[in-house]
Amino acid sequence: MAERSFKAEIERLKLGEGETFHGEGILAVTKALLESGVAYVGGYQGSPISHLMDVFSDASELMAGLGVHFESSASEATAAAMLAASVNYPLRGAVAWKSVVGTNVASDALSNVASGGVTGGALIILGEDYGEGSSIMQERTHAFAMKSQMWLLDPRPSLPVIVDMVQKGFELSEASNTPVMLELRVRACHVTGSFTARDNRRPPLTVAEAADAPVRDTDRIVLPPANFLHEVEKIEKRWPAGIDFIRRNALNEHFGTEDDDIGIIVQGGIFNSLNRGLELLDLSDAYGNASLPIYVLNVTYPLIPDEVRDFCAGKRAVLVVEEGQPEFIEHELNTLIRRAGLDTTVCGKDVLPRAGEYTADAIREGVSKFLRQHAPGRAPAAQSAPPPALSPASVPQRPAGFCTGCPERPIFSAMKLVQKEIGELHVSADIGCHLFSILPPFHIGNTTMGYGLGTAGASAFKPEGKRAVAIMGDGGFWHNGLTSGIGNAVFNQDDNLTIIVDNGYSAATGGQDILSSRAKPPHRKTNNPIERAVRGVGIAWARTRTRTYDVAGMRDTIREALTSPEKGPKVLIAQSECQLNRQRRLKPQIARALKSGQRVVRERFGVDPDTCTGDHSCIRLSGCPSLSIRTNPDPLRQDPVAHVENSCVGCGVCGEVSHAAILCPSFYKARIISNPSRGDRIRHRMRQWVIGFLQRHDERKLAARAF
Ligand SMILES: O=C(O)C(=O)Cc1c[nH]c2ccccc12
């Protein structure tokens, strides 16, 4: 079950010729694919492209009706390899994933498809999650475009441009027999706007029809001698054809004034930020009517030598606004300007930050510096004062952490308890929500090497004494952990423990179903147990614990795995449902039950303030966001007591941790009964009577001793 449902929005994907489509960037992309006669679509979810995959998934029936094949690929490598369908057949195909990580994973297939070239248009839609909102290493997909010679579109975040780039992207791919990448930053994915729709088009050839009439062309297969010819073809045919198409179709744009002796060259994807920066300097308005010329690169690779020459001719200096490092575009512009015999100065990273996100403010600062150097008359009068520095104490910290009720929390609580007994462990962490164990209060995890690579990251550790621990999510396990981690550990006779967090979904990417998910979606085969898979590749010591919230049980199994005399790789599958997905699943059911007057029981935990000692070790071992502190009601004690807030979902970990760690008995479980039955009411009255009797008894005893 995905984080967001697009069932309502996808109705708009049926709009026809001339109607106005209004919505988010990712929906516009999907609509543009359908209008382009795409024959097949695939991909792997990851921020900020997760929602695009969810849109595809929700629209899969509509696509099937048009004869378009869609599937959620097992990984980005799978998705990229799917583009093989466009090598021999005039089939348009689109795949999507998160870059740069997904492109890393896909790069084997991408190199192959880029070498052999394509007949049908191949479009790779990339969510480029760069900047301060990103959760991954800061790298540029641009490097992949250059090394494999694939074209890179970086459209201005405006719906008509994005839609046009999808459609032209296919044509460009076909005209130059080259795969085309379409990069969408997170804001472009979710920018809202309008464009004029066209009719959806059935693919002229479907994948089923192509399969019926196989075509084989050994010149397109990456195998000597054809691979040597591909290199020549890339340079002599595909590159010139690409440049020609981009120029003839004016994929790059011009904004602002025409003639000037300075100008700006910008990646399309950050045009809006540039324009905002210029607006703040009174050099543009909200519509991009700038008072200096701007050349917008909706195609950042390849650059078009004639366009660069024409833009730079007669200009003393140009500023290149290029996010991320190294400055590939700036380097190439210098070469092209030199080759054109011009002496235009190219500014870029000398006035803009070398790395980091190009926010409107960073760009405003860079443009100001550029103007001071090359057009002092148009520079802002004074250097703007830096914003007042905030002391770290005045900025509330909000480290990422496990959600309330997350089933992964008790796994790490149990590990902390084991570490107390046998000492610190080396822990090879993985991509997924479980990576939050690195942060307080757990401080568990020494490295992370990539998706599903937790076990591989521990493979150099061949312990003689203490075993190392690897963490892997169920998402990572099916993405590639089964072979690169578990299979490798079997083959190389590891003696480490892998804990596979089986929460039922690819939770970190937004709750998509995977092979071991418990849901039974109509067109997929789920419920494939992870334990069966690891035993299948030779794991002898495998345990599945079905309730991670049982902290004592988790602790005992982890201890057993780390201390048992048995040698060989060990796998502990720790199961409990992702709480976010569970809430999404249950909330509508509960709401319906409450409305229809059915009896509903919800559980919450609480802390008895009279018993709580106020030492807060429960918080240190759990870190649940619903576990907080409040003033001690006892006037003789000063330490604040622990307190469970109303966001509690009743997972019970706080209490379990406290008991497993023998901390204190102050946690209690309350059952909130809505629409109680007669039996509930009678039981409630009897309890009240007993409690009242005991309380009155206590009060009388206290009153007797009072003075
Ligand atoms: O959803 C995200 O933000 C992720 O980083 C998950 C992810 C999806 N595909 C990947 C490939 C390599 C590393 C992480 C991911």
TrEMBL record:
<dbReference type="GO" id="GO:0030976">
    <property type="term" value="F:thiamine pyrophosphate binding"/>
</dbReference>
<feature type="region of interest" description="Disordered">
    <location>
        <begin position="375"/>
        <end position="396"/>
    </location>
</feature>
<dbReference type="InterPro" id="IPR045025">
    <property type="entry name" value="HACL1-like"/>
</dbReference>
<dbReference type="GO" id="GO:0043805">
    <property type="term" value="F:indolepyruvate ferredoxin oxidoreductase activity"/>
</dbReference>
<dbReference type="GO" id="GO:0046872">
    <property type="term" value="F:metal ion binding"/>
</dbReference>
<dbReference type="InterPro" id="IPR017721">
    <property type="entry name" value="IorA"/>
</dbReference>
<dbReference type="InterPro" id="IPR002880">
    <property type="entry name" value="Pyrv_Fd/Flavodoxin_OxRdtase_N"/>
</dbReference>
<dbReference type="InterPro" id="IPR017896">
    <property type="entry name" value="4Fe4S_Fe-S-bd"/>
</dbReference>
<keyword id="KW-0560">Oxidoreductase</keyword>
<feature type="domain" description="4Fe-4S ferredoxin-type">
    <location>
        <begin position="603"/>
        <end position="634"/>
    </location>
</feature>
<dbReference type="InterPro" id="IPR011766">
    <property type="entry name" value="TPP_enzyme_TPP-bd"/>
</dbReference>
<protein>
    <submittedName>
        <fullName>Indolepyruvate ferredoxin oxidoreductase</fullName>
    </submittedName>
</protein>
<keyword id="KW-0670">Pyruvate</keyword>
<dbReference type="InterPro" id="IPR029061">
    <property type="entry name" value="THDP-binding"/>
</dbReference>
<dbReference type="GO" id="GO:0044281">
    <property type="term" value="P:small molecule metabolic process"/>
</dbReference>
<dbReference type="Pfam" id="PF02775">
    <property type="entry name" value="TPP_enzyme_C"/>
</dbReference>
<keyword id="KW-0479">Metal-binding</keyword>
